[in-house]
Amino acid sequence: MPISAQYASATYALGAVCCWGISDFLGGYTARKFNSFFLAMLGHAGGFSMVFAIAAGNHLPLPSTRGIVWAMLAGASGGTALALFYRALAQGNMGLAAPVSTVIGAAIPAVFAIWVEGFPRPLTFAGFTLALVGIWLISRRPEESGRPQGLGLAVISGLGFAGFYICMKQAGNGTAWWLAACSRGASLVATAVITFAGRKFRPFYPAGAVIGVLAGCLDVTGTVLFVRAAQSGRLDTAVVLTSLYPVITILLARAILKERFTAWKTAGMAAALAAVPMIARG
Q: Counting beta carbons within 10 angstroms of the beta carbon of residue 68, is it exposed (0 to 12), middle (13 to 18) or buried (19 or more)?
């Protein structure tokens, strides 16, 4: 792969890191006093409206039928996973749920990419390993015993995110804005069915709805950037780099919510940051 393409993929992926990290912090914080499925539905509605308006307003070419189907499958998987992820963030410490979900969501697509696209360069693979170790260190909580709250939901959401990554890669090289719109439309339908069928509207507060829409717009922007990262380079590179977004979530949780910043988290973030240039240059 040309070096310029590799750097382009890494740049898109790091942009997604910022969008997803901020979005997950906003969503996780709001879900503490807001129904997680209703919150995700509102976020998907806001995100879908934004990307659809951009794609249609600029008369961008539609993807192939195959691309639309894969994007919708990705959206159904990722949209449901996001609602479960918000609930996991609300139940437990953000510094646990986010990394656990991310490790699972990154590891499965990385293995899939190696199987389909072949083994990456040694430096890239070393970066993958260092990044996953870093995320795991961020999630480590030796000071507590027993099964932490939110862990089961974090694992399930990680499987859903893995499905999102793989399906989105299979969507091909169509226009990123339309693929994101198709994906987000399916996410909206999935979460709306669950929300209305179960009448999951409480707890609710007006400011939370506004934050949910904002989080959804940031999340779908991250999706567009991830699609471009996957189209510009290897799936495993795009997935592992974008999976560093818990660093942003945890930094915000520390700065705003004053969550405890352990030595393990510090070491994990240092490892994750060191992995970025290794993956980008590998």
A: buried
First to last CA, the chain: 10
Query: Which two three-digit tokens encode residue 200?
Result: 């999951």
Do 77 and 160 touch, CB atoms closer than 8 A? yes
In our burial notation (b when 16+ CB lie closer than 10 A, e otherwise), range 180-201 reads: bbbbbbbbbbbbbebbeeeebe
Residue range 238-265, pLDDT digits in tens: 888 888 887 888 788 888 877 776 777 7
Between CA 95 and CA 77 the distance in angstroms is: 23
Residues 6+ apart with CB under 8 A from 34: 203, 204, 205, 208, 209, 212
Q: Dihedral (C-alpha) 225, 17, 243, 182: value to the nearest 10 degrees?
A: -30
- Cα(74)–Cα(166) distance, rounded to whole angstroms? 8
d(CA 179, CA 174): 7
Q: How far apart are CA 3 and CA 134, in angstroms?
A: 25
Structure tokens at 212: 């949910």
For the stretch 106-135, pLDDT in tens is: 888 888 888 888 887 788 888 888 887 887
Domain spans in the chain, listed from the N-terminal domain onward: 3-281
pTM of the model: 0.84
**Token pair 């969550």: residue:** 259
